[in-house]
Design goal:
heterodimer, A: mainly alpha, 76% helix, globular, B: mainly alpha, MetI-like fold, two-stranded antiparallel ribbon
Chain lengths: 282, 298
């Protein structure tokens, strides 16, 4: 018989190895981001000489330059605006539809719902070509409203699916009570169903916010004018023009990355929920 | 009364259906219609010449750059399926144990997936840049005494595609990790307990308890990985740059290049349909394959 000391030592050794493995992956996840922030605080002269993670001198001037001369102030506000508008739109449109699919009766209900779900699963890789043509025809290309509507559509199916699943499991007592009290259907949706759906609405909000903030291809084909562009597209343009100014580019990247990292850290509970429940439809 | 009741209910879905019809259904039909034309996107469509299936014939028979792009995407996907998913699975296994800082790891591993592909592409491009002596990966290799592994990771055609695949895996493994972890946590702890009492060692209980119960999750992650990786392209724009052709092109980049650089809208749509069909067929095969391999539940 081996002693319990042996097993304890063995377990300790295994745990140490596991931590080493996990820590090395952690470093590989964080290092590039720390390097990005660190480089954004260096200058053209020091960026390819000073390889310390904490620069000897901190130059915040790159941020001032990126924000003003690089136009990042404008692009940042554009991104904030699109994210807010699209997420608000999705919450209203998707929750109305999900509520109807779960609670109300009307002909064609199942067919319509299956259509939304099928859209979630059928890949159409070239759809941006058609969207470009269509938005041109509708005179919605190079307009914020065209982009916002197209992006609402991107998040719609998934959000309807999440919300409908939630409403299906929700007891109807409170809604029945409201109906007896003479509340209209729209009133019940707004005053009863939406407040109850807060946990899943949080998932919908955070998830779609991530998608909109990071979106690239639709913004690329929809916008010609710089004044409308969100951050992701602007960074690419910026990189083309300031090819060799790495500190400035890193400052721009930090401006684009930091808000989403903060939102993620604060709301990570909901994101994990979204990933796992989104994956479960399969 | 009855009609009013139903109309009132329709009001709830009208906004969703309208947006869906305009931005999903109509483009969907458009893609198919345009794929039969030789159209530059400028002249009215009725003046464009109708080609029948010629666009598709050209893709299948006369477009080596398209098939090169398909092979490239296939290679990236292969690395994502093996390296990325194996890493995700191992990390999930490690975090499924009673281990300190579990939540910390879980939070960190999902940071790369929340970043945009543009940001990730540019940051990595900066880390492995071509400036003499400033490539951080090469610096590290030199410090470790491994000068034979120093390469121009992005400009050397021999390594560029694999570099793209590795960065893609760096960005993507957090997804698989979270889904695997959620799957592992649904396995009842009593099963492990029972296996231990029956004298099974760690490997045995992994093989007989964990793996069979994880098969559906593994299949799900596999399908999601294939669909996601085959269609990835924004990361390549950030990482490799604007040159859409060349040794790191993938199908969606070809579609974008054909539309924007050559103004062949019809051909771009035909490529989109071909690619979409290929993806659906692959997913379907994976799904059927998984049905056959599904272990019999006792």
């Amino acid at each position: 018989m081996r002693s319990s000391v042996y097993y304890k030592a063995k377990k300790g050794a295994i745990n140490t190895l596991i931590h080493l493995f996990l820590l090395s992956v952690t470093v590989s996840c964080l290092y590039p981001l720390l390097w990005m922030v660190s480089s954004s605080l260096k200058t053209q002269e020091t960026i390819f000489n000073d390889f310390s993670l904490i620069p000897h001198q901190l130059h915040l001037s790159n941020y001032v330059l990126a924000w003003r001369a690089g136009g990042f102030g404008r692009y940042f506000l554009n991104s904030v605006f699109y994210t807010a508008a699209v997420v608000t739109g999705i919450v209203i449109v998707a929750s109305l539809a999900a509520y109807a699919f779960s609670r109300l009766k009307f002909p064609g209900k199942n067919v319509l719902f299956i259509m939304f779900i099928a859209a979630m699963m059928i890949p159409i890789p070239g759809s941006f070509v058609a969207l470009y043509v269509l938005l041109n025809k509708l005179h919605l290309r190079n307009t914020p409203i065209g982009y916002i509507l197209a992006m609402i559509n991107v998040g719609l199916s998934m959000s309807i699916f999440l919300l409908k699943t939630f409403f299906d499991k929700l007891p109807t007592e409170l809604e029945d009570q409201a109906r007896i009290d003479g509340c209209s259907k729209l009133g019940i949706w707004w005053h009863v169903a939406l407040p109850l759906a807060k946990p899943v609405l949080a998932v919908v909000v955070v998830f779609n916010a991530l998608v909109v903030w990071n979106e690239y291809i639709l913004a690329l084909i929809i916008f010609d004018s710089r004044q409308f562009m969100p951050l992701q597209v602007a960074i690419k343009l910026f990189q083309g023009e300031f090819v060799t100014n790495y500190p400035l580019l890193m400052a721009g990247l930090t401006i684009a990355a930091l808000p989403i990292i903060i939102v993620y850290l604060v709301m990570q509970k909901y994101i994990v929920k979204g990933v796992t429940s989104g994956a479960l439809y399969g | 009364m009855r009609v009013k009741y139903i109309l009132e209910n329709y009001l709830f879905i009208v906004p969703a259906v309208l947006i869906f019809a305009i931005f999903y259904i109509i483009p969907f039909i458009y893609v198919f219609r345009l794929s039969f034309f030789d159209w530059d996107g400028i002249v009215p469509l009725r003046e464009a010449s109708f080609l029948g299936l010629a666009n598709f014939k050209e893709i299948l028979l006369q477009d080596p750059s398209w098939w090169q792009a398909m092979r490239n995407a296939g290679w990236i996907t292969l690395i994502a399926l093996t390296f990325q998913n194996a890493l995700a699975f191992l990390l999930a296994l490690a975090c499924d144990r009673e281990i300190r800082m579990r939540n910390f790891y879980r939070v960190v591993f999902f940071i790369p997936p929340v970043l945009s592909e543009i940001v990730v592409g540019f940051v990595w491009r900066f880390i492995i840049n071509d400036v003499e002596g400033a490539n951080m990966v090469n610096r590290m290799l030199l410090q470790l005494g491994l000068p034979q592994f120093v390469h121009s990771w992005l400009s050397d055609p021999k390594y560029a595609l694999t570099t793209v695949a590795i960065v893609h895996s760096w960005k993507g493994f957090g997804w698989g990790f979270l889904i695997f972890l959620a799957g592992l946590q649904t396995i009842p702890r009593e099963l492990y307990e029972a296996a231990r009492i029956d004298g099974a060692n760690a490997w045995r209980s992994f093989k007989s308890v964990t793996l069979p119960l994880m098969v559906p999750v593994i299949i799900l992650v596999t399908i999601l990985t294939v669909l996601g990786t085959m269609q990835a392209f924004v990361l390549i724009i950030g990482l490799v740059g604007g040159e859409f052709a060349g040794h790191t092109s993938v199908p969606v980049l070809r579609i974008l290049a054909v539309m924007r650089d050559s103004s062949r809208f019809g051909y771009a749509c035909a490529q989109g349909i071909t690619f979409g069909a290929i993806l659906i067929i692959i997913s379907f095969i994976q799904y059927r394959f998984s049905k056959e391999r599904q272990p019999v539940k006792t």
